[in-house]
Specification:
Layout: H1 2-6, E1 15-16, H2 30-55, H3 63-75, H4 82-98, H5 100-106, H6 110-118, H7 132-143, H8 162-176, H9 185-200, H10 207-220, H11 223-235, E2 243-244, E3 251-252, H12 253-265, H13 273-285, E4 294-295, H14 304-321, H15 327-332
Antiparallel strand pairs: 1-4, 2-3
Helix pairs in contact: 2-3, 2-14, 3-4, 3-14, 6-7, 6-8, 8-9, 8-10, 10-11, 10-12, 12-13, 12-14
Amino acid sequence: MLRCYLSFLMIVTLGTFARADNAPGKNPSATEVRASVDRSLGFLETKGVAWLDKQKCIACHHGAWMVWGLNEAKDAGIAVDGKKLDALTTRVVAMYMKDVPGFQTKKGGWVPSTYMLMSQTYAPAADAEMPDWRKAANGIIVAGQGADGSWKYQGQGLERPDQENDEASTLWALLALPHGSKADAATLAAREKATSWLKTVKQGPGIDSLALRLAVEARFGDAAKTAELKDELIARQNPDGGWKWSEKRPSDAFATGESLYVLSLAGMKSDSPAVKKAWHFLVSTQKPDGSWLCNTRKPTGGSEISTYWGTSWAVIGLSRSLPPAAPSAAGRRRRPR
């Protein structure tokens, strides 16, 4: 499973295919955004299941993102087959648990578990009882922490410094670790060490560093810092309504979906101008099959994995930023913890 993950992390230098109709104009309504998400669900399920069947691993870009995206869509009031989703979730968890003995021996494997557990589907509330598989995954994450308090990036080379890679990995781990009364002493110590390390590290210039720092502050930090980072993220939105992974890249579905998701965690409402512009960017660049074409470094277009990951983030960001469809949907909606 980790091998599958490592084979592709170069895609986060991606850009997104934009059709000619991605020009300033009328922003889509919530109904149109729901339709856009709905068009993507078949793509997520079909490609996600095919990956599980062929690769026999959940990686972090197919299995984990499939169930995360489908759960976000369901919580936004979009029709999702609950029984099928439960079965997919059970399958993903079982595949992860199968590899736990190897992860424990190597003191590795925390990267895919971090991405999986980061989803609101899996991250427990502060005082929730954790299932056995979640406790095992948490132990693997804690074991992967370095002596300095960081989690080292384990993927292939990216167009950003090693420290920025480690910063992003550490922020993801912090978001995945449980907190509150159900967190054991080792977890609390790991959290404290990571927080101390992050204070010594300058925030990286990429969107990942900013978005993830905002997510951590929104969940665990103070209101003033959350507001500061929120304003900074909004200021980075491009005129086309999207966000870009790095200064050298155009707006893309990956960075835009991630930014929408994190801004929602920070309390931004669906009627915000920034959200409306992001909706326009994503809806206008969606492909007919429901996906978003995300490019790798190669100028010829995106790969299977980059497109799937970018599409998943678009679904997650759009779903989370939607207003509740009905009171019943509002009751199911996951909110920042």
